[in-house]
Amino acid sequence: MPEPDESAHPDHEPPKTNTIPQSRTHLASGRPLRSPTFRWFFTGWSITMAGSAMSPVALAFGVLEATGSATWLSAVLTASIVPMMATMILGGGIADRYRRDTVLRLTSLGSGISQTGVAVILLAHQPPVLLLPLAAVNGIFQALTIPTMRGIVPQLASGGGIQQANSLLASARNITRLLGPSAAGLLTVSVGGGWAIAADAASFLLAGACFAKMSLPGLPPRTKGDPTMLSELRQGWRYFSSRPWIWSVTLAFAVFNAANMGIWNILGPVIAVSTIGADGWGLVLSARGAGALLATVVMVKLTVRRPMAPALSLMTLAGVPLILLGTGANALWLAASAFAAGVAAEFFTVAWSTVWHTHIPERLSSRVGAYDEFGSSVSIPIGQLSVPLLAAAFGTAAVAIAGGLLTVVAMLLPLLLPALRRIELSTSKAN
Fold it and tell me: I need a labelling partner for 76 at 20 to 30 A (CA). Which of 156, 205, 329, 429 fits?
């Protein structure tokens, strides 16, 4: 697309794309897996996702095994998420300023080392307070990794290959979400949570070795007249804040994440204990994962010319499981609604990622993505803290139903913007 004039009046229409720059014409436009660079990235991504899927179960049981205290587990999780959110924007600036393959190698190495430290502390039965700085370091590495991942796909694929790449990556993520927790549970039961964390550490190091095999185009050398990191972050903010079609979706998902992480993750098990039981709740979670996996497989081949209206409309289905949870529905209805919500969520994820990679300039992708990630995720701790208080005041059923209805409204509001509804996928990408 033409380079935007950052000093001009904000353009509220989604930018138009044009031809692929000559330096990018070597990228696979139809089948990303034909590209060796993408294959190495895909392998490293899959290994990273497998470790990340194992980590929550392994860490939770490892800390509880070592301390017997839910307070310590909460402290370790907080020690990770707070630095991650605090440095997310900076991570976007770094990912746009330096080679993304180099950033991924360093963050994978750093995450592997920090997780190794966690494993050693758990296995050696050292004081749990030592886990806190390692958790903070790991959170910072995650803050660097997430924006880098957001911006790297356009450097690996082009044209129709961008959606296929996003679908393949999402499929790998969903497969690991299905298998990773079970693998972590088996490791924890058989050899202990510390060894499960050690396996997670090894996954980061192995992924880093895969990323080291990648070869992305080099960046032009920086000169004295180049903008500072702060000015580049301001440029990313101007781009993000001047395009309602981006920040309206960010705000919608801030509401969704607060409701989903608060109500589904906290009230869901509480309600399930007295209604469908733990086995029924496991069925519901598996159904959601199966729906997500099905959607990503279908999206490898399915292309919707104007995807945002159907994607956000489908996302209203994500509110249905919350409503049914509040009405005391049986396991079958909850599983069916969770399956549909999983389909909707991954359809949206692939569509949004593809729109992002075809309409956001590559040079700004990680910075703008960092603002998107921060804005949509900063509400999660608010939801997790407020939902128990609201449930105590108004009852779990009322809070679950209200959260579901709020999710439906939040997903529909961005569609009031004509610019968002008109966004088209093209066979080219922003530069």
Answer: 205
Question: Which residue bears the tokens 């990630």?
Answer: 373
H/E segment holding residue 198: helix 193-211
Reported as a single tens digit per residue, the pLDDT across 355-413 is 888 888 888 888 998 999 999 988 888 887 788 888 889 998 999 999 999 999 999 99
DSSP helix/strand/coil, 28 = strand
Q: Considering only CA atoms, which of 114, 104, 108 is closest in space to residue 135? A: 114
Angle (CA) 36-39-45 rounded to 5° is 145
Report the alpha-carbon distance of residue 291 to residue 269 in Å, rounded.
20
Instruction: Name residue 343's amino acid.
Output: V
Would you say 10 and 243 are in contact if contact means Cβ atoms under 8 Å apart?
Answer: yes
**All residues at 6 or more sequence positions from 144 whose CB lies less than 8 Å from its CB, including other chains:** 87, 91, 94, 95, 103, 106, 107
Smallest CA-to-CA distance from 430 within 18, 14, 149, 150 is with 18
| CA 91 – CA 87 distance, rounded (Å) | 6
* H/E stretch holding 287: helix 277-298
Number of residues that make up the chain: 431
Predicted local distance difference test score (pLDDT) of residue 282: 72
Burial of 72 (0-12, 13-18, 19+ CB in 10 A): middle
pLDDT digits (tens, 9 = 90+) for 25-45: 445 555 788 888 889 999 999
Residue 28 forms beta bridges with which residues?
157
* Amino acid found at 156: L
> How is 314-360 classified by DSSP, letter by letter?
HHGGGGHHHHHHHHT--HHHHHHHHHHHHHHHHHHHHHHHHHHHHHS
Residues ≥6 apart with Cβ < 8 Å to 427: 29, 159, 160
Six-digit token pair at 199?
């396996």
At CA 183, angle to CA 40 and CA 271, rounded to 5?
Answer: 120
Distances (CA, A) of 366 to 39, 292, 307, 361, 362: 21, 25, 22, 10, 8
Asked if 429 and 163 touch (Cβ cutoff 8 Å), the reply is no
Residue 206 CB neighbour total at 10 angstroms: 17
Tokens 């500072």 sit on residue? 228
The answer to whether 91 and 144 have CB atoms below 8 angstroms apart is yes
Q: pTM surpassing 0.85?
A: no
